[in-house]
Design a protein that fits this description.
Blueprint: H1 2-16, E1 24-31, E2 34-41, E3 51-55, E4 61-67, E5 73-76, E6 84-91, E7 97-105, E8 108-109, E9 115-117, H2 119-134
Antiparallel strand pairs: 1-2, 2-5, 3-4, 3-6, 6-7, 7-8, 7-9
Helix pairs in contact: 1-2
Length: 135
């Protein structure tokens, strides 16, 4: 059952990808005390208008933080989130997403510990969650 679901999801996502789709690459930096996300496609073009959101542990959307500007940048304020590890999604549309795992302590992100998560790991996590709910 799990293999069938994984196959359907993988086939569904690959058939929905437009020809010539580019991976999104994102980076975080602190500039003058502000956390800035910078995001671009693998060809260097900025991901203008990409929605940036926090995700719940099951991969569902939690809260939108904003959208990237014309240069693919967004200032992020995490001062009101609980300490722990957060999942962040940069959503440039179908086939154009990036996922970052952010360790947050007192509203600050430890940039040395940020992990970029491949889409395949996000799908596996979602499949495990779906299976747990159906058991």
């Amino acid at each position: 059952m799990l293999r069938l679901l994984a196959s359907v999801l993988l086939l569904g996502t690959t058939s929905a990808l437009p020809a010539g789709a580019h991976q999104i690459e994102s980076a975080l930096t602190y500039l003058k005390g502000n956390l800035e996300l910078s995001s671009s496609f693998s060809n260097g073009e900025p991901t203008q208008g990409a929605v940036v959101r926090l995700l719940n542990p099951d991969g569902t959307p939690q809260r939108e933080l904003g959208s990237t500007d014309a240069s693919g940048r967004l200032l992020i304020d995490l001062s009101d989130v609980a300490d722990g590890v957060l999942d962040l999604q940069v959503d440039g549309g179908p086939g154009h997403r990036d996922y970052l795992e952010l360790p947050v302590n007192s509203g600050q992100v430890d940039l040395d510990q940020v992990v970029s998560l491949p889409l395949s790991l996000m799908l596996v996590g979602l499949l495990v969650n779906v299976r747990r709910r159906s058991d």
